[in-house]
Amino acid sequence: MRGTFYGVGVGPGDPDLVTLKAIKVLKRAEVVLFPSTGRGKESIALAIAKDYIPEGCTLSPVFLPMTRDKEKLEKAWDHVSLEIAEHLDQGRNTVFLTVGDPMLYSTYIYLFSRIKTAGYSVQTVPGVPSFCAAASAAGLPLGEGDEKIAIIPWNAGESLSAESLDPFSCAVFLKVSSDLTGVLQLIREGGFFRKGILVSRCGHDNEHIETDLSALEERNVDYFSLILARKEES
Amino acid sequence: MRGTFYGVGVGPGDPDLVTLKAIKVLKRAEVVLFPSTGRGKESIALAIAKDYIPEGCTLSPVFLPMTRDKEKLEKAWDHVSLEIAEHLDQGRNTVFLTVGDPMLYSTYIYLFSRIKTAGYSVQTVPGVPSFCAAASAAGLPLGEGDEKIAIIPWNAGESLSAESLDPFSCAVFLKVSSDLTGVLQLIREGGFFRKGILVSRCGHDNEHIETDLSALEERNVDYFSLILARKEES
After folding, report:
1. How far is it, in rounded angstroms, from Cα B14 to Cα B52?
2. Hey, are the CB atoms on B139 and A151 less than 8 Å from each other?
3. Cα–Cα distances in Å, from A198 out to A209, A217, B220?
4. Window B:104-133, CB contacts with A under 8 Å
Protein backbone atom coordinates (compact mmCIF):
# COMPACT_ATOMS: atom_id res chain seq x y z
CA MET A 1 0.00 0.00 0.00
CA ARG A 2 1.17 3.50 -0.80
CA GLY A 3 2.20 5.79 2.04
CA THR A 4 0.53 9.09 2.85
CA PHE A 5 2.23 12.45 2.38
CA TYR A 6 1.88 14.79 5.37
CA GLY A 7 2.65 18.49 5.52
CA VAL A 8 3.21 19.27 9.17
CA GLY A 9 3.34 22.78 10.62
CA VAL A 10 5.55 22.78 13.70
CA GLY A 11 4.86 26.36 14.79
CA PRO A 12 7.20 29.32 15.16
CA GLY A 13 10.09 27.90 17.19
CA ASP A 14 9.16 26.80 20.71
CA PRO A 15 8.79 22.97 20.67
CA ASP A 16 5.91 23.45 23.13
CA LEU A 17 3.97 25.27 20.39
CA VAL A 18 3.72 22.05 18.36
CA THR A 19 0.20 20.59 18.30
CA LEU A 20 -0.76 17.11 19.51
CA LYS A 21 -1.77 16.28 15.95
CA ALA A 22 1.68 17.13 14.59
CA ILE A 23 3.26 14.93 17.27
CA LYS A 24 0.91 12.02 16.46
CA VAL A 25 1.77 12.26 12.75
CA LEU A 26 5.51 12.54 13.46
CA LYS A 27 5.43 9.45 15.70
CA ARG A 28 4.14 7.37 12.75
CA ALA A 29 6.55 8.89 10.22
CA GLU A 30 8.98 6.71 8.32
CA VAL A 31 10.59 9.52 6.34
CA VAL A 32 10.89 13.17 7.43
CA LEU A 33 11.98 15.84 4.95
CA PHE A 34 12.94 19.27 6.20
CA PRO A 35 14.09 22.48 4.53
CA SER A 36 17.77 23.19 5.01
CA THR A 37 19.86 26.17 3.96
CA GLY A 38 23.00 24.13 3.43
CA ARG A 39 25.01 21.06 4.37
CA GLY A 40 26.04 21.07 8.01
CA LYS A 41 23.71 23.96 8.80
CA GLU A 42 21.03 23.56 11.42
CA SER A 43 17.44 23.25 10.17
CA ILE A 44 15.02 25.30 12.27
CA ALA A 45 12.07 23.02 11.48
CA LEU A 46 14.08 19.91 12.43
CA ALA A 47 15.32 21.53 15.66
CA ILE A 48 11.70 22.19 16.70
CA ALA A 49 10.46 18.70 15.80
CA LYS A 50 13.42 16.46 16.60
CA ASP A 51 12.16 15.24 20.00
CA TYR A 52 8.98 13.93 18.35
CA ILE A 53 10.62 11.97 15.51
CA PRO A 54 10.92 8.22 16.14
CA GLU A 55 14.25 6.40 16.09
CA GLY A 56 15.02 4.73 12.80
CA CYS A 57 13.10 7.35 10.81
CA THR A 58 14.88 8.44 7.62
CA LEU A 59 15.81 12.14 7.81
CA SER A 60 16.19 13.87 4.47
CA PRO A 61 17.26 17.52 4.14
CA VAL A 62 15.76 19.47 1.24
CA PHE A 63 18.16 21.99 -0.30
CA LEU A 64 16.51 24.57 -2.52
CA PRO A 65 18.45 27.05 -4.65
CA MET A 66 18.53 30.57 -3.14
CA THR A 67 17.06 32.17 -6.23
CA ARG A 68 13.90 33.90 -7.41
CA ASP A 69 14.28 32.27 -10.85
CA LYS A 70 10.94 30.45 -11.18
CA GLU A 71 12.27 27.90 -13.68
CA LYS A 72 15.13 26.81 -11.42
CA LEU A 73 12.79 26.63 -8.43
CA GLU A 74 10.22 24.56 -10.31
CA LYS A 75 12.93 22.10 -11.33
CA ALA A 76 14.01 21.79 -7.72
CA TRP A 77 10.41 21.27 -6.51
CA ASP A 78 9.89 18.63 -9.22
CA HIS A 79 13.03 16.86 -8.05
CA VAL A 80 11.98 16.80 -4.38
CA SER A 81 8.48 15.68 -5.37
CA LEU A 82 9.94 12.70 -7.23
CA GLU A 83 11.90 11.76 -4.10
CA ILE A 84 8.71 11.98 -2.01
CA ALA A 85 6.75 9.91 -4.56
CA GLU A 86 9.40 7.17 -4.41
CA HIS A 87 9.04 6.93 -0.64
CA LEU A 88 5.25 6.84 -0.93
CA ASP A 89 5.38 4.16 -3.63
CA GLN A 90 7.41 2.03 -1.23
CA GLY A 91 4.66 2.40 1.36
CA ARG A 92 6.39 4.89 3.64
CA ASN A 93 4.50 7.63 5.46
CA THR A 94 6.44 10.73 4.51
CA VAL A 95 6.38 14.06 6.32
CA PHE A 96 7.52 17.47 5.13
CA LEU A 97 8.20 19.82 8.07
CA THR A 98 7.28 23.48 7.90
CA VAL A 99 8.04 26.24 10.39
CA GLY A 100 4.78 28.02 11.25
CA ASP A 101 1.79 26.95 9.13
CA PRO A 102 2.15 24.84 5.94
CA MET A 103 -0.38 26.86 3.89
CA LEU A 104 1.31 30.20 4.60
CA TYR A 105 4.46 30.90 2.54
CA SER A 106 5.90 27.39 2.84
CA THR A 107 7.79 25.33 0.27
CA TYR A 108 5.27 22.65 1.20
CA ILE A 109 2.66 24.38 -1.01
CA TYR A 110 4.63 23.54 -4.16
CA LEU A 111 5.29 19.94 -3.11
CA PHE A 112 1.69 19.46 -1.94
CA SER A 113 0.22 20.47 -5.30
CA ARG A 114 2.57 18.16 -7.22
CA ILE A 115 2.00 15.13 -4.97
CA LYS A 116 -1.75 15.73 -4.86
CA THR A 117 -1.97 16.06 -8.65
CA ALA A 118 -0.04 12.78 -8.99
CA GLY A 119 -2.89 11.09 -7.11
CA TYR A 120 -1.29 10.34 -3.76
CA SER A 121 -3.06 10.68 -0.40
CA VAL A 122 -2.08 13.97 1.24
CA GLN A 123 -2.87 15.38 4.68
CA THR A 124 -1.94 18.84 5.91
CA VAL A 125 -1.57 19.57 9.62
CA PRO A 126 -1.91 23.30 10.33
CA GLY A 127 0.41 25.05 12.78
CA VAL A 128 0.70 28.27 14.77
CA PRO A 129 1.95 30.98 12.36
CA SER A 130 4.93 33.07 13.48
CA PHE A 131 2.91 36.31 13.39
CA CYS A 132 0.38 34.94 15.88
CA ALA A 133 3.18 33.88 18.24
CA ALA A 134 4.81 37.29 17.78
CA ALA A 135 1.54 39.06 18.65
CA SER A 136 1.22 36.98 21.83
CA ALA A 137 4.87 37.54 22.80
CA ALA A 138 4.64 41.29 22.18
CA GLY A 139 1.17 41.68 23.70
CA LEU A 140 -0.06 43.38 20.53
CA PRO A 141 -3.60 42.46 19.39
CA LEU A 142 -3.76 41.88 15.63
CA GLY A 143 -7.49 42.03 15.01
CA GLU A 144 -10.21 43.49 17.23
CA GLY A 145 -13.90 43.56 16.33
CA ASP A 146 -14.24 44.49 12.66
CA GLU A 147 -10.59 45.40 12.08
CA LYS A 148 -9.06 44.25 8.82
CA ILE A 149 -5.55 42.82 8.67
CA ALA A 150 -3.07 42.95 5.77
CA ILE A 151 -0.28 40.38 5.57
CA ILE A 152 2.57 41.59 3.39
CA PRO A 153 5.73 39.60 2.63
CA TRP A 154 8.26 42.32 1.94
CA ASN A 155 10.91 41.89 -0.69
CA ALA A 156 13.23 44.32 -2.39
CA GLY A 157 11.31 46.19 -5.07
CA GLU A 158 8.01 46.22 -3.20
CA SER A 159 5.77 48.91 -4.63
CA LEU A 160 2.73 48.96 -2.35
CA SER A 161 1.29 52.45 -1.77
CA ALA A 162 0.44 53.76 1.69
CA GLU A 163 -3.11 54.48 0.45
CA SER A 164 -3.69 50.83 -0.31
CA LEU A 165 -3.40 50.19 3.43
CA ASP A 166 -6.19 52.68 4.25
CA PRO A 167 -8.88 50.01 4.83
CA PHE A 168 -6.61 48.09 7.22
CA SER A 169 -6.25 48.65 10.97
CA CYS A 170 -3.44 46.15 11.37
CA ALA A 171 -0.58 45.03 9.18
CA VAL A 172 1.91 42.20 9.36
CA PHE A 173 5.14 42.66 7.38
CA LEU A 174 7.17 39.51 6.75
CA LYS A 175 10.75 39.18 5.44
CA VAL A 176 11.48 42.76 6.44
CA SER A 177 15.26 42.37 6.69
CA SER A 178 15.69 42.64 2.90
CA ASP A 179 14.66 46.30 2.82
CA LEU A 180 13.99 47.69 6.29
CA THR A 181 14.19 51.31 5.09
CA GLY A 182 11.42 50.70 2.56
CA VAL A 183 9.16 48.94 5.09
CA LEU A 184 9.63 51.63 7.71
CA GLN A 185 8.82 54.35 5.17
CA LEU A 186 5.54 52.66 4.20
CA ILE A 187 4.66 52.05 7.85
CA ARG A 188 5.26 55.72 8.60
CA GLU A 189 3.25 56.96 5.58
CA GLY A 190 0.42 54.54 6.37
CA GLY A 191 0.10 55.77 9.96
CA PHE A 192 1.28 52.53 11.57
CA PHE A 193 4.66 53.68 12.89
CA ARG A 194 3.98 54.59 16.52
CA LYS A 195 2.29 51.26 17.24
CA GLY A 196 4.72 49.10 15.30
CA ILE A 197 6.77 46.32 16.89
CA LEU A 198 9.59 44.25 15.39
CA VAL A 199 9.95 40.66 16.55
CA SER A 200 13.03 38.62 15.64
CA ARG A 201 13.44 34.84 16.11
CA CYS A 202 10.06 34.53 17.81
CA GLY A 203 9.87 31.54 20.14
CA HIS A 204 13.63 30.89 19.95
CA ASP A 205 16.16 31.36 22.76
CA ASN A 206 17.43 34.53 21.12
CA GLU A 207 13.98 36.09 20.60
CA HIS A 208 14.13 39.89 20.47
CA ILE A 209 11.25 42.36 20.62
CA GLU A 210 11.82 45.99 19.63
CA THR A 211 8.93 48.27 20.55
CA ASP A 212 10.48 51.46 19.19
CA LEU A 213 10.74 51.26 15.41
CA SER A 214 12.74 54.51 15.24
CA ALA A 215 15.57 52.66 17.01
CA LEU A 216 15.85 50.44 13.94
CA GLU A 217 16.40 52.98 11.23
CA GLU A 218 20.16 52.57 11.01
CA ARG A 219 20.41 48.91 11.97
CA ASN A 220 20.58 45.54 10.32
CA VAL A 221 17.98 43.14 11.62
CA ASP A 222 17.92 39.35 11.79
CA TYR A 223 16.64 37.50 8.71
CA PHE A 224 13.87 35.92 10.83
CA SER A 225 12.20 39.22 11.70
CA LEU A 226 8.68 40.48 11.19
CA ILE A 227 6.87 43.69 12.01
CA LEU A 228 3.40 43.87 13.53
CA ALA A 229 1.70 47.25 13.34
CA ARG A 230 -1.56 48.81 14.41
CA LYS A 231 -2.85 52.06 12.98
CA GLU A 232 -2.43 55.09 15.22
CA GLU A 233 -5.79 56.43 16.33
CA SER A 234 -6.50 59.80 14.75
CA MET B 1 1.47 35.61 45.86
CA ARG B 2 -0.75 36.79 43.04
CA GLY B 3 -1.75 34.34 40.34
CA THR B 4 -0.92 34.77 36.65
CA PHE B 5 -3.54 35.45 33.98
CA TYR B 6 -3.23 33.27 30.88
CA GLY B 7 -4.93 33.73 27.54
CA VAL B 8 -4.90 30.33 25.90
CA GLY B 9 -5.68 29.70 22.24
CA VAL B 10 -7.10 26.19 21.84
CA GLY B 11 -7.21 26.15 18.04
CA PRO B 12 -10.14 25.80 15.66
CA GLY B 13 -12.04 22.79 17.03
CA ASP B 14 -10.12 19.52 16.89
CA PRO B 15 -8.72 18.82 20.41
CA ASP B 16 -5.62 17.41 18.67
CA LEU B 17 -4.89 20.90 17.31
CA VAL B 18 -4.21 22.16 20.84
CA THR B 19 -0.51 22.87 21.48
CA LEU B 20 1.59 21.25 24.21
CA LYS B 21 2.03 24.68 25.78
CA ALA B 22 -1.72 25.19 26.07
CA ILE B 23 -2.03 21.78 27.73
CA LYS B 24 0.79 22.55 30.18
CA VAL B 25 -0.86 25.83 31.18
CA LEU B 26 -4.30 24.21 31.50
CA LYS B 27 -2.88 21.47 33.77
CA ARG B 28 -1.74 24.13 36.26
CA ALA B 29 -4.96 26.18 36.04
CA GLU B 30 -7.04 26.82 39.14
CA VAL B 31 -9.75 28.84 37.39
CA VAL B 32 -10.79 28.52 33.73
CA LEU B 33 -13.07 31.13 32.16
CA PHE B 34 -14.65 30.44 28.80
CA PRO B 35 -16.95 32.39 26.49
CA SER B 36 -20.51 31.09 26.47
CA THR B 37 -23.51 32.17 24.44
CA GLY B 38 -26.01 31.35 27.17
CA ARG B 39 -26.82 29.25 30.20
CA GLY B 40 -27.06 25.56 29.39
CA LYS B 41 -25.50 26.09 25.96
CA GLU B 42 -22.33 24.29 25.02
CA SER B 43 -19.14 26.35 24.89
CA ILE B 44 -16.97 25.49 21.88
CA ALA B 45 -13.75 26.54 23.63
CA LEU B 46 -14.59 24.43 26.69
CA ALA B 47 -15.50 21.41 24.54
CA ILE B 48 -12.07 21.57 22.86
CA ALA B 49 -10.13 22.00 26.12
CA LYS B 50 -12.12 19.94 28.62
CA ASP B 51 -9.90 16.85 28.56
CA TYR B 52 -6.91 18.96 29.57
CA ILE B 53 -8.51 20.76 32.54
CA PRO B 54 -7.61 19.29 35.95
CA GLU B 55 -10.25 18.02 38.37
CA GLY B 56 -11.23 20.53 41.03
CA CYS B 57 -10.55 23.48 38.71
CA THR B 58 -13.20 26.23 38.94
CA LEU B 59 -15.05 26.61 35.63
CA SER B 60 -16.58 30.00 35.02
CA PRO B 61 -18.65 30.81 31.91
CA VAL B 62 -18.41 34.37 30.59
CA PHE B 63 -21.66 35.70 29.16
CA LEU B 64 -21.28 38.79 27.02
CA PRO B 65 -24.23 40.80 25.70
CA MET B 66 -24.98 40.13 22.02
CA THR B 67 -24.70 43.78 21.06
CA ARG B 68 -22.43 46.10 19.10
CA ASP B 69 -23.06 48.89 21.67
CA LYS B 70 -19.49 49.71 22.76
CA GLU B 71 -20.57 51.14 26.13
CA LYS B 72 -22.48 48.01 27.13
CA LEU B 73 -19.63 45.79 25.97
CA GLU B 74 -17.04 47.81 27.88
CA LYS B 75 -19.11 47.49 31.06
CA ALA B 76 -19.28 43.73 30.56
CA TRP B 77 -15.50 43.48 29.93
CA ASP B 78 -14.85 45.59 33.06
CA HIS B 79 -17.07 43.26 35.05
CA VAL B 80 -15.30 40.08 33.86
CA SER B 81 -11.90 41.72 34.44
CA LEU B 82 -12.85 42.42 38.07
CA GLU B 83 -13.78 38.75 38.51
CA ILE B 84 -10.41 37.71 37.04
CA ALA B 85 -8.53 40.19 39.27
CA GLU B 86 -10.24 38.73 42.35
CA HIS B 87 -9.04 35.24 41.43
CA LEU B 88 -5.51 36.53 40.79
CA ASP B 89 -5.47 38.43 44.12
CA GLN B 90 -6.28 35.17 45.85
CA GLY B 91 -3.25 33.58 44.20
CA ARG B 92 -5.08 31.50 41.59
CA ASN B 93 -3.69 30.92 38.12
CA THR B 94 -6.57 31.95 35.89
CA VAL B 95 -7.04 30.99 32.26
CA PHE B 96 -9.29 32.54 29.62
CA LEU B 97 -9.96 30.11 26.76
CA THR B 98 -10.13 31.31 23.16
CA VAL B 99 -11.08 29.37 20.06
CA GLY B 100 -8.32 29.84 17.46
CA ASP B 101 -5.68 32.40 18.42
CA PRO B 102 -6.10 34.84 21.35
CA MET B 103 -4.71 37.90 19.50
CA LEU B 104 -7.08 37.50 16.52
CA TYR B 105 -10.65 38.70 17.11
CA SER B 106 -10.98 37.28 20.63
CA THR B 107 -12.73 38.73 23.68
CA TYR B 108 -9.44 37.97 25.40
CA ILE B 109 -7.93 41.11 23.85
CA TYR B 110 -10.23 43.36 25.93
CA LEU B 111 -9.63 41.41 29.15
CA PHE B 112 -5.87 41.21 28.51
CA SER B 113 -5.48 44.97 28.18
CA ARG B 114 -7.44 45.63 31.39
CA ILE B 115 -5.60 43.01 33.48
CA LYS B 116 -2.21 44.06 32.09
CA THR B 117 -2.91 47.76 32.80
CA ALA B 118 -3.90 46.84 36.37
CA GLY B 119 -0.37 45.49 36.84
CA TYR B 120 -0.95 41.73 36.93
CA SER B 121 1.32 39.16 35.31
CA VAL B 122 -0.15 38.06 31.98
CA GLN B 123 0.93 35.36 29.52
CA THR B 124 -0.63 34.69 26.14
CA VAL B 125 -0.40 31.27 24.49
CA PRO B 126 -0.95 31.50 20.72
CA GLY B 127 -3.11 28.96 18.89
CA VAL B 128 -3.83 27.71 15.38
CA PRO B 129 -6.25 30.22 13.77
CA SER B 130 -9.37 28.80 12.14
CA PHE B 131 -8.40 30.13 8.70
CA CYS B 132 -5.11 28.21 8.75
CA ALA B 133 -6.95 25.01 9.68
CA ALA B 134 -9.52 25.73 6.94
CA ALA B 135 -6.76 26.19 4.35
CA SER B 136 -5.22 22.85 5.36
CA ALA B 137 -8.59 21.08 5.33
CA ALA B 138 -9.54 22.52 1.94
CA GLY B 139 -6.06 22.15 0.41
CA LEU B 140 -6.03 25.81 -0.57
CA PRO B 141 -2.71 27.65 -0.12
CA LEU B 142 -3.17 31.09 1.43
CA GLY B 143 0.13 32.73 0.68
CA GLU B 144 2.76 31.71 -1.89
CA GLY B 145 6.00 33.57 -2.48
CA ASP B 146 5.31 37.32 -2.40
CA GLU B 147 1.50 37.06 -2.32
CA LYS B 148 -0.30 39.46 0.00
CA ILE B 149 -3.24 38.30 2.12
CA ALA B 150 -6.20 40.37 3.33
CA ILE B 151 -8.17 39.23 6.39
CA ILE B 152 -11.64 40.75 6.46
CA PRO B 153 -14.22 40.15 9.20
CA TRP B 154 -17.47 40.70 7.39
CA ASN B 155 -20.40 42.37 9.07
CA ALA B 156 -23.59 43.86 7.76
CA GLY B 157 -22.84 47.31 6.35
CA GLU B 158 -19.40 46.43 5.10
CA SER B 159 -18.32 48.95 2.50
CA LEU B 160 -15.02 47.67 1.18
CA SER B 161 -14.47 48.29 -2.54
CA ALA B 162 -13.31 45.56 -4.92
CA GLU B 163 -10.45 47.87 -6.01
CA SER B 164 -9.06 47.94 -2.49
CA LEU B 165 -8.38 44.21 -2.87
CA ASP B 166 -6.27 44.77 -6.01
CA PRO B 167 -2.89 44.37 -4.26
CA PHE B 168 -3.98 41.10 -2.63
CA SER B 169 -3.69 37.61 -4.13
CA CYS B 170 -5.56 35.91 -1.30
CA ALA B 171 -8.39 36.94 0.96
CA VAL B 172 -9.93 35.47 4.10
CA PHE B 173 -13.49 36.54 4.88
CA LEU B 174 -14.67 35.89 8.45
CA LYS B 175 -18.21 36.08 9.90
CA VAL B 176 -19.66 35.72 6.40
CA SER B 177 -23.06 34.36 7.49
CA SER B 178 -24.31 37.84 8.38
CA ASP B 179 -24.38 39.00 4.75
CA LEU B 180 -23.42 36.23 2.35
CA THR B 181 -24.83 38.10 -0.67
CA GLY B 182 -22.59 41.07 0.02
CA VAL B 183 -19.48 38.96 0.50
CA LEU B 184 -20.10 36.95 -2.67
CA GLN B 185 -20.61 40.14 -4.68
CA LEU B 186 -17.28 41.58 -3.51
CA ILE B 187 -15.51 38.27 -4.14
CA ARG B 188 -16.92 38.22 -7.67
CA GLU B 189 -16.01 41.86 -8.40
CA GLY B 190 -12.53 41.37 -6.95
CA GLY B 191 -11.81 38.36 -9.18
CA PHE B 192 -11.69 35.82 -6.35
CA PHE B 193 -14.89 33.91 -7.07
CA ARG B 194 -13.72 30.90 -9.07
CA LYS B 195 -11.08 29.95 -6.52
CA GLY B 196 -13.20 30.63 -3.45
CA ILE B 197 -14.02 27.99 -0.86
CA LEU B 198 -16.42 28.16 2.08
CA VAL B 199 -15.52 26.19 5.21
CA SER B 200 -18.05 25.76 8.02
CA ARG B 201 -17.29 24.39 11.52
CA CYS B 202 -13.68 23.66 10.62
CA GLY B 203 -12.20 20.86 12.74
CA HIS B 204 -15.58 19.88 14.20
CA ASP B 205 -17.48 16.67 13.51
CA ASN B 206 -19.89 18.55 11.27
CA GLU B 207 -17.20 20.31 9.22
CA HIS B 208 -18.39 21.22 5.73
CA ILE B 209 -16.35 22.39 2.75
CA GLU B 210 -18.08 23.97 -0.25
CA THR B 211 -15.80 24.39 -3.25
CA ASP B 212 -18.42 25.92 -5.53
CA LEU B 213 -19.41 29.34 -4.24
CA SER B 214 -22.19 29.67 -6.81
CA ALA B 215 -23.97 26.83 -4.97
CA LEU B 216 -24.29 29.15 -1.97
CA GLU B 217 -26.06 32.12 -3.49
CA GLU B 218 -29.52 31.22 -2.25
CA ARG B 219 -28.56 29.46 0.96
CA ASN B 220 -28.14 30.23 4.63
CA VAL B 221 -24.76 29.16 5.97
CA ASP B 222 -23.65 28.20 9.45
CA TYR B 223 -22.58 31.04 11.77
CA PHE B 224 -19.12 29.46 12.07
CA SER B 225 -18.26 29.82 8.39
CA LEU B 226 -15.41 31.52 6.62
CA ILE B 227 -14.43 31.95 2.99
CA LEU B 228 -10.90 31.52 1.66
CA ALA B 229 -10.27 32.90 -1.79
CA ARG B 230 -7.40 33.12 -4.26
CA LYS B 231 -7.38 35.51 -7.17
CA GLU B 232 -8.13 33.98 -10.55
CA GLU B 233 -5.10 34.13 -12.84
CA SER B 234 -5.69 36.52 -15.73
Report:
1. 13
2. no
3. 6, 12, 42
4. 104-105, 109-110, 112-113, 116, 122, 124-129, 132-133
Map out the domains of chain A with their CATH numbers: 5-125 (3.40.1010.10), 130-230 (3.30.950.10)
Closest CB to A18: pick one of B19, B145, B151: B19
pLDDT tens, position by position, B174-230? 999 988 999 999 999 999 998 999 999 998 889 999 999 988 876 778 888 999 999
* ipTM metric: 0.95
> Which of B11, B19, B151 lies at the smallest CB-CB distance from A148?
B151
CB A17 within 8 A of CB A128: yes
A103 interface with B at CB cutoff 8 Å: yes
Does any CB of chain B come closer than 8 Å to the CB of residue A197? no
Phi, psi for A116 (deg, rounded to 5): -65, -50
